[in-house]
Every structure is written in structure tokens, then in C-alpha cells.
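Thread: Modeling a multi-component assembly for a lab meeting

Hi all, long-time lurker, first post. My supervisor asked me to bring a structural picture of a complex we are working on to next week's group meeting, and I have zero experience with this. I have the sequence lines for every component (716 residues in total). Could someone generate the structure of the whole assembly? Inputs are pasted exactly as I received them:
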Amino acid sequence: MNIYDVAKQAGVGIGTVSRVLNGSAKVKPETRERVQAAINQLDYVPHGAARSLGSGRSHVLGLVVPFFTRPFFIEVLRGVEMAATAHGYEMVLYNVETTTQRDHYLRQLPMRRRVDGLLVVSLFCDESEAERFRKMNLPVVLVDSYNPLLTSLVVDNISGARQAVEYLISLGHRQIGFVNGVKVGSFNFNKADDRMSGYRQALANSDIPYNPEWVSATEWTRAGGREGARQLLLLPQRPTAIFAASDVQALGVMEQAQAQGLRVPQDLCIIGFDNIELAELLNLTTVAQPMHEMGKQAVERLLAEIECPQPPQTVMMDVTLVHRSTTAPLAAPNVSAFSTASVRDGVWATQQNIITEG
Amino acid sequence: MNIYDVAKQAGVGIGTVSRVLNGSAKVKPETRERVQAAINQLDYVPHGAARSLGSGRSHVLGLVVPFFTRPFFIEVLRGVEMAATAHGYEMVLYNVETTTQRDHYLRQLPMRRRVDGLLVVSLFCDESEAERFRKMNLPVVLVDSYNPLLTSLVVDNISGARQAVEYLISLGHRQIGFVNGVKVGSFNFNKADDRMSGYRQALANSDIPYNPEWVSATEWTRAGGREGARQLLLLPQRPTAIFAASDVQALGVMEQAQAQGLRVPQDLCIIGFDNIELAELLNLTTVAQPMHEMGKQAVERLLAEIECPQPPQTVMMDVTLVHRSTTAPLAAPNVSAFSTASVRDGVWATQQNIITEG
DNA sequence: TTGTACGCGTTATCAA
DNA sequence: TTGATAACGCGTACAA
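Re: Modeling a multi-component assembly
Sure thing. I ran the full set together rather than chain by chain. Output:
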């Protein structure tokens, strides 16, 4: 059951069927109808592989993403999915959890085009790889990562971190901890560095000395955040507020605070980064990234590049601080334990009361 | 840069190159090495589409899943991804959010094999569709759904629901609400019905009359769960415990309890279904499904079917009740408001104390 | 064990 | 506006 069958059934040549299939302009309406009827009658659907082979286009986008089950990536993925299907593209998922996998996907996969383009999320991409993409004529867009040779969509991590810490300072905090993420292999390369820069800039702007003891770099996980917080909170001179490099880590910080009997926000203020769904649920103050929008824009730029080569471009997306109830003005020392807040003010208890989200 | 270039470079015919590429037995080690060297030297990677066209195999698995961002599906997806890559298969994601999309993917997509097999998750599949798959010789495995003509992986939803409700009864509850999920179009067809059956069976087994007022069917979302709980909890005679058809809905129930000032588990016990990551985090008692395992098994059965046709089989996976801290023995009436629990016993506060997970 | 020729189902290019 | 025909790159009989 192929294009010849349809042609025969409709009494035309295969060229005409192909034109109808691809919505080519030059075909008489009457003929088109006849072909269409034959197609419907035979339940004919073109063969994808043959089509790819002939046209050099697969209408498939490759998506290289680390740890795709993590909320941040899921949200980006969602934006990608919506945009891709809207434009008639399919999406194949390459999950990266090891450096080997990363190298494999970024080196082998592009060589012969099973995909029309590649979206690389949160993965560092070196010059030689970028150069190879160019040589192969494989359109690539980076999301949450940067390379001068490739179109890159980044959020302003420095500014986001700075805003978060400046907000804490404005609340009266001076002892501000930072639970950063680690740079594992080639993952999340600039992210950790940039958020660190933002943290230090904010401190410097207010002439607060930088204290390396108040910084820890952990896995980008709940357990990591928890461990990081444990280190900071057991110091003789502990931070009164902690900025975490991701919401997931912030979650771990909250758990650790809970475990040590510290109330949030009275005894410890917490700010996360990302604004995943859970952040809203737990009323976590956080730096919001436009994750859906990033996915969508990435697809659109990639498709543009597939249509015709574009000069590499770096797009900076804005972040916004979302005020929720894990932050509050610094309580006067030694009074915090009996502050004005209700005794039931756990994280969950406050959630219905203090909503300043805007 | 194709197989001919490699052949020329190695001084052999393309047949030999092909044999090397596909690990065919009959090739002299010396020749193999020469070909391999040429492949490496030219950075040659075979063209996927051409390969598919020639062999009739794409090494791609289609994954049709509704609302893939929801935790249950993500977990299944994760299992699928691991198994698929382990076997050298790629994975293309078809997200379904409307009946139109469902029909499209289940009717058009299979017609001409871009994929070697299809995994359909939580979607009802009717006889005619199953029949069509058979006619097309397209291997299909159903996950969390059932059709007699197709290999189906299901969990025992009836038993799971029954276990949950029986547990509540064993704790002394007699007024047990049920926040079920709706059957939207062709989504989650049997699931809602089966969990309802389990609920009613448990009641019947203990001679507790079924009270339709204590049942509501909502969206499978947090907002849905919340709305369902609102209906039940505002009744003059309100339930003392609520069983929710999914963890996500249970979350909504928790929120609503919180909003009405009901303490969990003293004033209201809650059991969910699925055991998503969040359930552990919030210490929600729930019925656990082996989500990763389902994804993995599904892939393995699908691959087996791709190798050679198998008779349809229904595999029942076990569920297990996970005891956490949103359930407790029913407090004596009128005492619950001043029970022995600490005043700070919100959901979060209890989480470190009452852990009976096994 | 190796090389050759053909087929897979399209798209694209021409000439009509 | 249409039909014939040559790619597309590989797998695979079949012949050597």
C-alpha cells in the first residue's frame, strides 16, 4: 500500500499524489479531490522513513536533556512539546545522566540526521562540538546554556541570584547562606558559577563580607539541599537566611530546618530558584524562570534555523522574584522564638495566610 | 558521505561494510578491522532513515501518554526510558490532552510505521483500534489500561482501593469519603470504575452502607481534589477519612482540610493512590504502584512482540499500601480537637515524628 | 568470505 | 498542470 496504489486508484501519476500530499500549489482542484478520495478510501498514510530519505527532512526534533524527571526540565519539556506539535514536529527524548551519555548524544547522534534539529538543555557544549554541528549543518539551539557559536537561550542567572540576595538584605539579613549546585562533569556549567556571582555581587553591593563558610555546593537534589543546609545550620554562627540554587534544593533546606526545629520564616528565611509547581504549593519565595516560554522560544528559533541558517544569537530571558511566605523581615535576636506569629505557623499553616504573590 | 565512501576507503564492497555495521558473523576479522578503521577515519554514521527504509525497522518506540507532565506518567516514562535506551531504542513522545489528539495518534500514526511499536499509557483503546493494530502488524502494549486483544499491564485497582478503605475501617472509621477521578472522554477508562468498585467492596465487606453523598468525581488534579474534598467536608455529616483516587488529588484534599482548619490525621485521615515522590515528601499514606517497573516491563514485552508476535496477555501488577502519617486511629468523638497531639502538628510538623513506613 | 544488483517509498527534476 | 524517471542510502538476496 504505497503511493503507486493511490496513483492507480485515482488514475494519476505518483508525482501528482506527492504534490497533493505536500500541499503543493500547482494541482487542479478537481484532480486534488480525486486523489484525496483515493487516499481516504485506501486509508493511505505516507511512509515516514521513505519521506525522510527523499526529502532529507524527518520532522523530528531531538531533545537532549539531563535528568528529565526533574521538575525544571519537565516544565521546559512541556513548553517544547506544545510548540513542536503545534508546528507538526515530533520529539525524541535523549535523557542524559552520565558524561558518557552526553558525549554520545552530542557527537554520534548529530552525524547523520535522524533529527532535523537538536535542542540541548542545561548542558555545556564546547567549541569543538559546536563547530561540528556547524560542519554537519545541524541546527542546534541551547537552552539554559551558552555557547557563542550557537543560538543560546539563557536566563539572567547573575541578576536572579543578586535579586534574591538583595531582597534578603532588604529584609535585614546579614548572615546569608548559599546552597549552590555542583558542576558535575559538563552539566549545568555556567549556572552554578553565575548564581554564585550574583550572590557575591549582592553582598558586595551592601558591603557585607563574603564568608566562604556560608556557602556549600551540593547535588541539585532534595537530599543535596538538605545536606548543604545541615552544614550551614550547624555552624556556631549560623545564617539567618539561605538562598538555594534551585527549588528542589530549597525543599531540602526546608526539611533540614524542620528537622532542627527551626521555623520558617521566623528562624530561617529561604529563597529558591526556578519556580516549579511545588514552590507554589509550599509557598516558597523563589526566583521564577519562564520555563514554558523558554521551551517554546527554543523550538521556534530552532525551526527558523531549520528553514534557513541564522546567525547565532544569545537571548536573555528575564527572571522575576516571586514573594511568598518563606521570607520575612529579620526578627530581633532572641525574640524570634516568641514572635507575633501564630504558634501554628509551620510552612503549611502559613500558606493560606500570607500571600503576597504578584 | 555514505556507505560507498566507506567501502572505497576500505577497499571493499558496500555489502561488507553493511555486514560490519550490523555485526554480521561472516566477515574476516582482518577485513572487519580495515572497515572499522575507515568508519572511524571518516566519522561515518549510518543514515537512520535509509536504514529504516531498507530494513523496515526504525528502532524507535512510540509513547502515547496523556498529560505527560503529571507525576504518575513521568515515573512510568522514566521506567520506559531506562529500558528503551538499554535496548538501543529511541523514544518519541506523543502527548495527549484532547480526544482529538488521542484519536489522531491511535489511528493515523500507526498506519505507516515510523515506530516499531507503540506503548499506550492510561488510555482506553477500543476493539476497532486494537483490530487495526493487528491488521497493521503494529506491536502495541497497553500500560494501566486493558484490552483483551492487546498485551495489557494493569495494576489491581480494585484490590488497591479495597485495601486502602479496609485499612481506614480497621482504624475505626465508618464515615469514609471517596474523591474519585472523572472519566473524561476515553481517558483512564477502567481506573475510576475499578477504584470505585474497590471502595464499595470494602464497605460492603464490613456492612457499612454506601452513601453516594460521600463520593465525588473530580479532575485528576490538585484543584480537582480540593474541590471534591470541599463538597464532602461541608456536609452536615462529614467523612472522618477520605480516600483519593490519586496522590495529586489527595494533595488537594490536604489543602482543603488545611483551609477548613482540620488537622491531619487527627480530624481527617487521608489516603492517596500512586505513591509519587511528593507522597513521600508530605508523608501521605498511599497505595503504591510500581511505576518504574511498569514502564520497564512494558518495554520488554513490547520488544519481545517486535521480535516475534506474541499472544495478547494481561499482566496484573501488585499494589502495596504504604503507611505514612496522614492516617491514624479514629479519635473519640468530641475529643479530637484537643487530642494528645502537639499543637504544631500540621502535616509538615508531623512528618518527622510518625513514621511507620515499611 | 566478498562483491553486485535490486528494492524500499518518497521527493524532486524535467520534459511534455 | 501533469507524468516519467532519477536520486536518496541502506539492507539483502544471489552470484562469485
